[in-house]
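Possible regression after last week's pipeline update?

I re-ran a chain I had predicted before the update to compare outputs. Posting the input and the new output here so someone can diff against the archived version. Not blocking, just want to make sure nothing changed silently.
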Amino acid sequence: MGAWGVGIFDDDVACDARKAMLDQFRAGLSVKAATDAVLEDLADFLQDEEDAPVVVFALASVQWEIGRLDKRIKTRALQIIAGGVDFRWAEREFQVRERRRLELANLGAKLNTPPPLALHMDKLPDA
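New output (post-update):
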């Protein structure tokens, strides 16, 4: 698994989390049930200090984008952003770390705005 950029979805783990979330919504699950199912499915990633923030950021971003933001995920994402914990990027050069920090600041700002109206299942983006 790897990351090829600083964007929220420029990472294999983030792409897996996004696909898992969209699949649960396509199956007709509620926000809470879909989130619970994805958190259970991705439990191994969530136990890893590098992967866990990536998963949370991906879930928060995709949920916001489709208008189905779980408050628990929003809270976790904002806590991680505020704490500056993003281990996957800790050893990178300053400019890369700074671009990632800006990406996360933008995510935090987005999460603090009202999400768009919830998309109907047949309008969900491809994973």
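Follow-up from reviewer: compared with the archived run. The chain has a mean pLDDT of 88. Marking as no regression found.
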